[in-house]
Amino acid sequence: MPLQAQQSTPAIAAKKILRISAVPDQNPEKLNRLYGLLAEELEQKLGVPVKYVPLIDYTAAVTGFRNGDLDLVWFGGLTGVQARLQTPGAQVLAQRDVDAAFHSIFIGNVNSVAAIKPIRTFNDLQQLKGKRFTFGSESSTSGRLMPQYFLAKGGVKITDFAGGAPGFSGSHDATIALVQSGAYEVGAVNEQVWQTNLRKGNIDRTKVVALWRTPPYPDYHWVAQGNLNKRFGPGFSSKLQKALIQLRPSNPRQQQILELFGARQFVEAPASQYGQIEAIGRNLGKIR
Amino acid sequence: MRVQAAPALGLLLPALVFLPLVALLPGAVHGGGWPLIAAFGMAALQPSFTPALVANAFHGIAITLAIALWSWLLSMAIGLIAAVFSSPTVTTALWGCRWPAHWLRRLLAIPRSLHELLWGLILLQLIGLHPAVAVLAIAIPYGALVARVFSDQLESLDQKPFQALQAAGVAAPAALFSALGPSLLPGLLSYGGYRFECALRSATLLGVFGLGGIGADLRLSLQSLQFNEAWTSLWALALVMFSLEQLIALWRARCVQGRHLLILLGCLLLLLFPAANLLDLQWQVLLNPWRLLPADQLFQLQGWWQPWPQLIGSTVLLTITAALAAFVATPLLLLLICPWPWLQLLLRAFGLFARLMPPPLTALLLLFVLKPGLLPAVIALAFHNAGILGRLFLEGLESQDPRPEQALWAAGVPRRRALLMARFNGLATSYMAYGAYRADVILRETVVVGLVGVGGLGAVLLEALSSFAWAELLPVLVVYALLTLLGEELADRYRRSLLFNHTQLGGGSTPQLELLPRGVPGPA
Question: Where are the transmembrane segments (chain B) (predicted)?
Fold first, then answer.
């Protein structure tokens, strides 16, 4: 079916299937493993069939949610706000412990950034002017929105990069690979993805280095449709929220899920937290 | 036999476009990613054969083929019906007036003016995540295009048999069918076959943007630099595209006739059901209420404030340079390699690769070594279209009479000059006419490379869609459509004047389709 990276039977017509999805911010193999496990876990806890719908596009996740084709989506900060603004009744269910104060990391190719002095203030970002710079996906919060916002604070416009425009690698993993290869000199990635890749030894530290850690901002969150209680029975939304929040490392499967998410656990998240993201999104024209 | 090389020179003149392109190149190359390009090339010899991956690639191909098949048949059906009713002959016969035909013709220009990718992204907003989106996205603009080609053909047919039948008292529909049907059939089959190839390319491209099929796998593996995996998909796609092209060439050369044709059509129809199953097409979702875009946000004055001259300028510049480069690439290369005929095989293989590689993915690879900007966009578009134009050019060359060229060799004329003077000359006019049509296609296609940093209309459109900026979407769509309509009109006029002059010069008074090289579709 369209908008799916891998095969899986669509469940558009079925009213009784909980369709979960996520913004495609990392390699699809990893996402398939992660959300496959989560679907099993939720199915067991909630007693309803759960289906993971893989997507290859951030915008498609928002559109799918707005149109009611997806019930529960793991959104980034920006896409989550976009989705909630377009979907009456949608609610924030949870975020990871790391999401309330999330960071991006600016990374650089060793050969290109040798002359760059340590970045301590926003103004130091001016040294990146004229570099070949890549963001992640266009609608990514940690890979585009917040980095662009902080760059602007330092007086760097996106037209200041080599070629007059930044690149959009598509995902955080792709950004790391491109900067490491030298195709781009500097890039902005999600800190948690960067850390995980470092730990796993996926990064050649002789080729790519971290340049700067951004100030904190709220990022990823689970957003659910407002009509779940009506479709799946009274109290379903809170059962779903509990199922997410009660994932614990003591259970082997739950431990695997949390590890793939890069989180110790999920916590409740106030929707108001994302007001800052909405303001910046409007400011940069990603929310109209 | 004419010996002057004038028309053939007209064929090669667009090569001048390479001068500014080459001049721009040093400033645009950064070369940071040459190792990646090398790795991509090397990986061609080592595609990944992991069973799961191979299975996935074939599943992706099957989805792409299913989308192509459904959208093709649907577009042919839409096209045929619309063609009949946009032909003044038909409406006059049925209702005694011509205006319904003229109005339908004008109306059909609108769906045709938008690229299938835009249709896909818009329908996605209206219908939701559903396989029917990709099928409709191709079928709508293709249907309108097919309608125009067929109604042109219908009008260019000899009307006397029809008038005779009508005079003899045969009812209008029956008279139309039996008088015009048989003479329309060959052109219909030939052009129809070609449209299937186009549908396969479009379906691949839609996949790149997440609308289903192998394109998605291709984009993901290229983006994550998994080149061995990318080549699994590319080889699978090459295999399918090559066999399909060969099959369609047979079909179009009229080797498949009569009973065989019926059997082939029957097979295609039978394939529709498994294809629908595979895609899980549920047409009934189209009957669900559409999620119309909020009108108050769609119609807002401030969306009309755009730097139009700059946007339109860069779109037009991109179109013209890409079209000229794509047009001249094959004739130029053929001339260069003329003394070594075996190199033609390499050229053909390269052409196949160019055709199967969606332009945004070529652009993605180019950005490994080029700075973002106009140049990678031009190269990506030109490369893809050179593959398409080149194949038609080669087919046309083969169908030319070899004797004049052999006579020139015998007279001691060097090979390159002989090729120019004989076969290139014979093909020049029809190839230029086809090139004009292709330029028109490229104009629509500029939207697909909108994201590699060219400030054209395509970039603004895709950005508006990803920001859900409906107020901006409508004006850009309207301007884009107007621009493509204008482009279509200009290309049309140029083509007609070319063919007209050709006929005046004694190039033969055959209908337009026959003027084009065998294998080149008619006016479209």
Answer: 67-96, 117-144, 164-186, 198-218, 230-249, 261-279, 311-338, 345-368, 374-394, 441-462, 468-487
Sign (positive or negative) of CA dihedral A92, A98, A103, A104: negative
> pLDDT by residue (tens digit) across B239-254?
999 999 988 888 777 6
Contact A3 B367 (CB under 8 A): no
**SS3 at position B171:** coil
Considering CB atoms only, which of B30, B131, B465 is closest to A59? B465
- Tell me if chain B has a CB within 8 Å of the CB of A158: no
**Domains of chain A with bracketed CATH:** 18-99+219-283 (3.40.190.10), 104-213 (3.40.190.10)
Q: Which among B30, B35, B453 has CB closest to A165? A: B453
B264 and B344 part of one domain: no
Q: For chain A, what is the total number of helices (H) and then of strands (E)? A: 11, 11
| Domain identity same for B277 and B351 | no
Whether B276 and B314 share a structural domain = no
- Of B112-116, B173-177, B492-496, which range is least confident? B173-177
B210: nearest CB among A55, A168, A178: A55
pLDDT confidence of residue B261: 74
Chain A residues within an 8 Å CB radius of B212: 1-4
Confidence of residue B200 (pLDDT cuts 50, 70, 90): very high
Question: Is the same domain home to B251 and B315?
Answer: no
Contact list in B for residue A69 (CB cut-off 8 A) is 128-130
Number of domains in chain B: 2
Asked if B465's CB is within 8 angstroms of A167's CB, the reply is no
Domain span at B423 = 306-515
Q: Do B405 and B274 share a domain, yes or no?
A: no
Whether B27 and chain A come into contact, CB under 8 Å, resolves to: no
The string of pLDDT tens digits covering residues B303-337 is: 888 889 989 999 999 999 999 999 999 999 999 99
- CA–CA distance, B215 with B226 (Å, rounded to integer): 15
End-to-end CA, chain A: 30
- Which of the listed residues B283, B316, B336 is the one where a domain comes to its end? B283
pTM of the model: 0.89
